[in-house]
Each structure stands twice: as C-alpha cells, then as structure tokens.
Amino acid sequence: MAILETKNLSKAFGALAAVNDVSLRIEAGTLHSIIGPNGAGKTTLFNLLTGTTAPSSGRILLDGRDITGTPAHRAAHLGLARSFQRTNVFPAFSLLDNVWVAAFACAPSWKGLLWRRADRYPEVSARALAALADVGLADKAGRPVREISHGEQRQLELAIALAAAPRVLLLDEPAAGLSPEETKRLVALVRALKGRYTIVLIEHKIDIIMSVSDRISVMHFGSLIAEGTPAEIQRNHEVRRAYLGGVAA
Amino acid sequence: MKKETILLLAAVLVLPLVLRPAIASEIWIFAILGLGLNLLLGYTGLLSFGQATFFGSAAYVAGWLLKHYGINVFLALGTGVLVGAASAALVGYLCVQRSGLYFIMLTFALNQLFYFVAYQWTSVTGGEDGMPGIPRPAFLGIDFNEPLPYYVFVSALFLLSLWIMKRIVESPLGRILQAIRENEVRAEAVGYDVARFKLLAFVIGGAFSGAAGVLYAMLFGIVPLEAIGFVTSGNVVFATLIGGSGSLYGPIIGSFVFIWLSESVSTLWARWPLLLGVAFVIVVLFLRGGVVEAWARFWSWRSSKQKT
Amino acid sequence: MSLLAGQILNGIATGMLYALMGLGLSLITGILNIPNFAHGALFAVGAYLLVTAVNVLGNFWIGLVAAPLGVALLGLAIEYAGIRRLYAAGHDYQLLFTFGLSLILAEGIILVWGPVGISHLPPEVLRGGVDLGFTFYPKYRLFVMVVAGLLVFLTWLFLEKTRYGAIMRAGIENKEMVSLLGIDIHRLFTAAFALGAYLAGIAGALTAPIRGLSPGMGVDMLGIAFVVVALGGLGNLLGAIAAGLLIGVAQALVAAYWTEASTVVIYAVMAGVLLVRPQGLFGIR
C-alpha cells in the first residue's frame, strides 16, 4: 500500500524544469532512497512534498488523499516530517527545547498556549526526550546547541523531525559533512528507525544507499530515469551513464 | 521570592520618594510600552518601528471617550487595550507578509499614515496642538488627580502587565515566537503557521502599547501629536535596545535610562534631540547588547575571577 | 480642465523627485541591505546647503551643483565612520544608528539655520510662468521636471549601461558573487551610499524653491521614500521610478479636490496595493 505517491509532479522555475513529470510510489514501512547527481532536483522534490514550494503541475497523495497545495506548516500535521541538508535548528535553544518545539506543534491539544508554563506539558516533554533518546542525545538534553559537535547537530536535526511522531520521514542528506565514524553511527540509527517509520532518503554516499534501501529511485535533470531494488539499480546502464558520464556537479 | 522581583518591588516603592511621582509614573508607562515592543523585537525578532501607531491611537480614542463621555478609568483602559490590539491587527496583517527591511519600512510607513491622519483630523485630534483636557476620573472614591494615588494605580498596572508578559513568554507561545526568531523556515516546517503567530505577537504587543497610551493620556491630561509620531516609535526601540532586548526586564531598565535622560536633558536645552541622536549612535557603536548584557557579562567575569 | 492638467504636471514634477529619492534609497537598501533612516535628513541637508550656497556664492547653478556634492561627501563620511562598522550588526542597530543620525542632522539644521521655515525663490530666469496652451505653468516646476527626469534617466543609464553600474546591480543580486569576482565589496558599498546620498541631496536642492524649507522636511520625505521602495521593490530601479511617478501624480490629483488628504493618500495607496499584492507593484514573490 503506497503511503506517499506523486503523479506527474513538476516544478519549473522559469525555463528550468527542476522537477519534471515525476511519478513515485513510496510503500509504507519501507526505506526508499532518491539519488542523483547534484542539481538533479532531489531537494526540490522534497520541497514539493512538504509544501515549501508549490508545484507547477501534478499531484501529491498521502494515503490516497490528495494533499497537493497544502501549505508548508500543515505538512507536519499530516505526518510528513523533514530534516534538512544544511543543519536547520534553533541555535539559541537547548537540545531539549529544540525538539520540544517540534513536539508541541503536533501535540493533540494546544490548550494553555498563552498561559500555561511551557515546562508543564508532560506528554510533550516526554515525547521530546524520547526523540532525543532515539538519536542518542538524551544525556545532552539540557545543553545549548553551540556546545555540541557538528555530527551531534546532524543527530539533533534528525531528532527534531522525529519529535512530531511522523508517519513519513523525509531525510535530506543526513550524513552531510559527517566523518566516517559519525556516518557509521548515523547509518545504524537510520537502520534502527526502519520499520517504525516510512523513510524517504536523499543521499550521495552510495554505500549507505545500497546498504539500507529497500527501493531506489534515480533522478537526473529533474526526471526519474530509473527505479528498482539496490541490485537492479547497480546493474542499470542509464544510471551508470548519469553518474559516471561526467555530469555530477 | 526571586531577586528580580524583590528589586522591582523595591524600585516601585522607592521611586516616588526619589523622583516626582509624575516622572516615576512616566517610567512605568514607558516600560509597559517597551514590554509590548520587546515581545516583537526581542522574542520574535520583528523590528517594529511603529509602536507609536498603537500607543497613540489608543491614547486618542480613550482620551476622546474620557473627555466627552466621562467613562471610568477601567473602561478607558479596556478601550485602550482594544484599540491598541485592533490597530496592531490591521498594521500587522499588512506587515507580516514581508520580512527584513521591507517589514521595518512598512511599520514605519504605516505609522506615518496614522500620524498624518491625526495631524489632519484636527476636529478630533487637535492636530499639532494635541488633545488637551483629559480627565482622570475617580474610582471607588479614590481621587486619581493627585500624583501619588495615580502613581500607585500606574505602578500596580505595570506590575500586572509585567506578570502577564512573564506568563506569555514562559508559555508555549513564548517558545514558538522565539523559535520563529531563531529559524523561521524550520518553525514553519515543524508545523507552525508563522504568519499567524507573528500577527498574534503584533496584537499582544499592540494591546500592551495601547494600555500604555491610555495611562499616558491620563498622566499628562493631553495627547500630544508626538505620541503617535515616529520619534516615539524610535524612542521605545532605543530604550529597549539599551536595556537589552534579550531579557524580559531589559525594557524596564531601558525605560529608566531613557526617561531619566530625556527628562533631565530636555529642560536644559531645546536641541536635546541632538543629544538623543548622539546617544543612539554611541549605544550602537559601543554598547551593543545593552545594559542587561553588559551587566551579565560583568557578573560572569567577576565570578570567573573569583574562581581563580 | 486646466486645473487638472496643472495638477498632473505638478504630480509629474514631484513624482520625479520622489523617483530620485526612491532610486537612492533603493540602491542603498538593495546593495548595503540596511534600513537607511537618515535618507530624509540627507534630502533636507541638500535643500539647506543649496540655500547657503546660493547666498554665499551668489549663483543658483553653482549651488545646484555644489549642494548635492556636499551631501554626497556627507554620505561618504557617514558610511566610512559609522555604517561600515555595522554591516554585521543587524537591522535593529543599523536602524538606531541612522535614526540617531537623522535626529542629529535635523537638530543640526535648526542650530545652523534656525527653527523657522525658510522660503527660497528660484533664480531670476526661472521665475514666473509659461503659457503651455492648456494652462499657465510655473517655469521652475517645468525645470524641475526636466532636470529630475534627466537625472533619473542618467542614473538609469549609468546603472544599466556602464560597467560600474553593472557591478552595483550585481551587488544587489548577489554580494558574495561580486566579492568572489575580486571586486572590493567595501568600495562598492561606499560608492552606493554616496550615490544614494547624492540623489537625495539633489532632490532636496531642487525642492527648495518649490515648497520652501523647514527642519522637518526630511522626515516627511523619508516616509515617502519608503513607500516608493516598498511599492517599487527593494533594489528594483525601474520599480522605484514607476512607483515615484505613480505616487506623485496620485497625490497631486487628490490635492486638487481634498487638500488635507493629499499626504495620507500616499500611504493609503501603499496600504491598498500591498493588501492586494504583498510583494509591491513590481516585486517578485
């Protein structure tokens, strides 16, 4: 059962077709990766899925329901959570507060929004701590963001996405800028999340993709040029040409 | 009780003994205005350069009702809060759709709109001459015409305002607004309608500014045209920045500094706005972060010295 | 009919001046990315410097050349001594700085020239009116229309057709790219501020014989300049010109029927446009 689907999704910026007639099916509970050279349109695709950018044409379906045109701030409430390629956290907050803000947004009730003390929402705090624990940062919950390393910030980035208890996680290059050691930890983390969430992953590091993905879609110049299991993609000539034909930016 | 609360209560009690009660009242009134601005500036990261719009509008409307319809103080206050909030909703609706420099310029331009309306509508506002003759109606038998009873009223309202603002900044809304300041894109991505929240911050800030406006009108018995002018908008920004926009109490300190400065210098020299301008320039070039941050830095420096 | 025609001509004349103000402010805000609240004060200084130059040098034409240059020099000094240190400081401090400057300049004007408004006659050759057929129109206003229009055109030409103008436009689009191309970004900023100040100064100098001078003339013009930029789009030079003309004509037309509302209408137009198009007339979403 496809939990997330796009039908002929396109986005043009003037004459540039950033995303061109992309039809994707993401099966529930799987980890579906999107790969492609720089500029292939992967992040734009994410922006379309989360409503950050409005599509030029085409449709997006979540659980069979048409969610095309939903504004960006509704995406989280629909169950779509996203992490960003460049770390996008709340710098002045502590780690816990970073995640708390995301958890509160999707809390069942906003009662007391203006007058209850923020630390008196036990379920929200619990969910925030759980998200931090999921990424292995629970012991640093009270620390401010500037005190943690870059790798830990990428973990926080992920925790913020988890805090909304989403159904679909859109992870945009979570391993960006990580050392080999940190990358290994991240992969283990992503593997642990498999099954609990449907994950759509954008990544450049091919070994990560091959080891965790159930399915892979390949984008090139905005279009989908191939789709299949990791093994099928490895054997695919189009893909080899796109990647090794000197077009990677 | 916390350190800050004790200091504040002490200040409230001692101030009328040290300064003329009228000036003491002015300080608390300006502090309320600063609290309203700082919700926008310090907490949400919105540099609203037009708070005088809400301050002045509330002063004019409440002043008019007080003068011509003899309403009581609490109704006047309520009116002020409502007018402040409503004008802020109007201005906010137009402004929150833009950001950065556009936002700042729009708040200023809309301030000018209200200013020129007030300037031209002389039959109601008195134009350049202002709206004089605003009474301070008695309440429950207490005569507010004496400076000291009015001071008690004003300072009590200030403490109430501060408590309300404290509740707001410690609430989830406070966190959401700060999240918007820290990273608007992410705040939107995690599920907050940023434009709506900015508008809410505007309305709350406007409500506080409106309350300050009414108290101001009753304090001086007149609503001068400057109350709705851009200089007032600039003064409250200055006061908030010099006190420190990063804390709840910054605007209070800033109010002290600004009112004391302006009251003492304005009597000495008609060209005192020049000194005010110089003060702005000096603060910007040398004293960024404001008094609160300088104080905090001083204390952390001292405590680190004591450890060695 | 002739009243209307006269008002439209007035509108074009003031619209050209508004366009000059808007152009200068648009350049400064677009390239330096700071809220320049001193822009109106620079306009006022331009007007007062013209009066002094004419009184001292005895010649309007020399004054018209000298006064804006004086303002440009002032702009250079301001950028060098203050604004340069504030590029990283954040809009609130930049605002406070330029706002403080505007107070200093306005009070400085009062100290030097007194608090009372001054009226200043145009030079002999430009006094009186000209018969245009459908109306009798003041010579000086025609002069302003032509000169301001010429200046707007020359500025546009400079920015669109010269190499340095292209650098400035590139600076509006993408500062990092410009500095990566090896161009001294600081000199660009200084030049942009000086040019913006010059435009404000000459607008002020041209205005002096039309409406007279007063220490508060800067603030009124500041608001209008902001409206022009908000409508035309930050850094959008053609937009600033179009918005300036639009506002000038709108104001003049309203002034013919409802004088008191003529200033308010500028802001009302802005509010109205932004309600429908938040990005301004020419801005991109």
Describe it.
The complex is a heterotrimer of chains A (249), B (308) and C (285). Chain A has two domains: 1-79 and 167-249, P-loop containing nucleotide triphosphate hydrolases (Rossmann fold, 3-Layer(aba) Sandwich), CATH 3.40.50; 88-165, no CATH class. The model of chain A has no long low-confidence stretch (mean pLDDT 90). Chain A has helices at residues 42-49, 72-78, 95-105, 122-135, 150-162, 180-193, 206-212, 230-235, 237-244, and strands at residues 2-13, 16-27, 31-35, 57-62, 65-66, 80-83, 168-172, 198-202, 215-220, 223-228. Chain A is built from nine helices and ten strands. With 308 residues, chain B is an all-alpha fold. Chain B is globular and about 55 Å long. With 285 residues, chain C is an all-alpha fold. Helices cover 75% and strands 2% of the residues of chain C. Chain C is built from eleven helices and two strands, in the order ααααββααααααα. Chain C has helices at residues 2-32, 39-57, 60-81, 91-113, 139-161, 163-173, 175-180, 185-211, 217-232, 237-257, 262-276; strands at 129-131, 136-138. Chain B binds chain C through residues 41, 47, 49, 94, 97-98, 100-102, 104-106, 108-110, 112-113, 116-117, 120, 230-231, 234, 237-238, 241, 245, 271, 273-274, 276-281, 283-285, 288, and chain C through 29, 33-35, 37, 82, 85-86, 89, 91-93, 95-97, 99-104, 106-108, 110-111, 219, 223, 226-227, 229-230, 234, 260-261, 263-264, 267-268, 270-271, 274-275, 278.
